Amino acid sequence: MDNLSKKELNKINVINDAEKNVLAIIAHSIAAAEEVFSILTEEDFTVMNYKVIFKALQEQFLAKVAINITILSNYMLKNNMLNKIGGIEFLTDLFQSYTTDANLPEYLDIIIKNTTSRRLKAVLENIHREIETHQPIDEVVSKAEKEILDVKKERKGNLFKTSFDEVDKVLQKIELLENSGEMLTGSPSGFRDLDRMTSGFQKGDFIILAARPSMGKTALALNFAVKSAAQSKKAVAIFSVEMPAEQLIQRMIGSYSTVDSAKVRTGKGLQTRDWENITKAADFLKQTKLFIDDTPGLKVIELQSKLRKLCRENEVGLVVIDYLQLLSTGTHFSDSRQQEVSTISRQLKALARELEVPIICLSQLSRSVEKREDKRPIMSDLRDSGAIEQDADIIMFLFREDYYAAHDPSNLDTPLETEKAQLILSKHRNGPTGSVELLFVKKHGSFADYGLQNSKI
């Protein structure tokens, strides 16, 4: 104490006075006690005597016992608490210090800020220890980001949201939507019928887009990403574990230039008109706020860290992950790969809610779908499904019947340039299920609303 500055001593005195005054108010007011016990815990107090008294007051309050100094002192004596605070004199002084309830909000604010400060210091000390013990730096950074955010969110999470406040918020939102004339309440997919069913991809939603290989799920996901970025003007993050960024951009240029993707990929056979369209598509893509991470073998902990940083620096409207089964936790799961995928699914759902962004995660389907006569996917076809069905807010399956016809050896017809595709919403937690018809343009590797083949955005 002798080494503390005058400023530090004054701060400690202010905190101690706030703690003492809160306890005195609790002891004299049932209404105040209800408020305090819904906000503070024993760990919010720094003086050991005050911790003990708070616990005794709380126990008496929960037992619905009237609080006065006689009843409280007898209770504390019986439970071996009174000797811990130095006897009846300390308790008497506390009761006599009461003056008014008027300053309770100010006292609570002082205590809460002090608790936040102490917890933040503890987190920083823990980070320093992990660095000194040479823990993997990417794990330290991700853990640190989450713990620092949790320090602030923990207090908010302890509070109930009242129907009075929440109903007003919803009514205000409905009124804003009515006045704006906007049908979407979330990030646009860019596809007319899908947006009608979902009202856009909603904040905090975890969305699964699944299909068999070569069905076009990456192409559709890229369409979602570009259309959403163009229409919302918000940032869109793409985590591509399977394909490098250069190939993704190449596919986007092919899709939005309407130039044959083979020509874009090889650079052969391009005409002047093709180059004009490629240049326009390139200029268009430069105007969108697309952020691509193509780290191979990406761990969920790395994805979390990168996305948190991106969300701090930008207003992110949509996140696309290609794809779920290529992510890893970085931890060995002795039981099964299914357990690891289930863990990843839960972590991504939690991340979507934490950052309040919709996350679209691509997923593989098991081979069992190929063995059925009706090859339309169902939820049990999700590979390593585990918790995916439970965690996802929306589960969409991409299905092209013509894909199977083209791969049928008995079919001698010339493959079509365009095919009807179905986007099957098998699960929609907050809306209808059903199918959306799309048009797949094979040579561009792009999708469009059915009947609007030439629609790009």
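That was protein one. Protein two is written in the same sequence-then-structure order:
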Amino acid sequence: MPRTKGDHEARRRDVSEAVWHVMAARGFTGLTLRAVAAQLDATTGLLTHYFPTKRALVEYALNLLERRTLTRTRRDSGEGTAALRDALLDMLPLTAETTDINRIWVSSWDAALSDPDLSSDYARKYAASRDRLSERVAADQALGVLPPGDPAKVAAGLQAFVLGLVVQALFAPAAFPPQRQVQLVDDHLATLTGGRTGGHR
């Protein structure tokens, strides 16, 4: 019996879940056709239908990671610094899900740095993240809860702060448990606002 489109889409979903489980368990460096095949209880020959090369698997995995990152449930506390705080907390490994996502992102940096095309794509992703933060910063400046200045510069500093905190929390989770990560974000925002109020929690 010929396979239907529904069968094909179901198999793609199965493959996606297998790729995700491998990345979450082994990090990006552990992502291989053999590992994905074992997760699926299938042969590597079956997977070559979807991924004829390791590069194709890597590209697919990164697209899957980006989709998972962008579509997961996020905090929504309204406007003011509460909204900016939400955006920062959403980047941190505060739950099992966000820990997995961050582990995979960080473990993928090596592959991205060694591939010019992937490096350009990552630069685009981080620039887009800065742009979103910059919009929130500008909104807070308009409300008077952040001092005036270049929103893009503030956003770059916030992104650098959060990415640094992500790395520390992944490598030293006992030293940087979720509650400490949240407190560090709150302390950083308090420094930026300089005692201004308006919309923060």
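The chain has a mean pLDDT of 86. Keep this in mind for the problem set.
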